[in-house]
Design goal:
mainly alpha, 130 residues, single chain, 0% strand
């Protein structure tokens, strides 16, 4: 199994990763005042379990990734782009997440959780392809 991506696939997975990151950042910004990153954090974590893998499968389809190694490579690249955006903007522009203070750390932790969940579908694909 070849994990190489075409230039178009690279651009699509990077754009998809950044798009999913932005949805996460907006969830934090607008969810903090609603208590999603306080008393209702467990509900958000549980809701992410089915939503994130579905989102990753959509990225696979949009980017034209093959099962197995290419799927893992694509998700890794998209997750790297999303993580880089998150790391830079939480540090240098926390206003995007609704500002510093209560709920920001929980929001950052939730984005990490979502990134980890996103690896489940491609890793299962890799195991099945062997």
């Amino acid at each position: 199994m070849d994990g190489k991506l075409t230039r178009a696939q690279c651009l699509k997975v990077v754009a998809s990763g950044m798009g999913l990151w932005f949805v996460g950042a907006m969830t934090i910004q607008y969810g903090r005042p609603l208590g999603l990153f306080g008393p209702h954090l467990a509900i958000l974590y549980l809701a992410s379990v089915p939503l994130i893998p579905v989102s990753i499968m959509l990225v696979k389809w949009l980017s034209g990734l093959a099962d197995g190694a290419q799927y893992v490579t694509g998700v890794a690249l998209g997750t790297a782009a999303a993580t880089a955006c998150d790391a830079l903007l939480i540090a240098f522009s926390p206003g995007l997440y609704g500002g510093g203070g209560e709920g920001l750390a929980q929001g950052a932790a939730w984005i990490l959780w979502a990134g980890a969940l996103g690896f489940i579908p491609p890793l299962l694909s890799l195991v099945r392809s062997r």
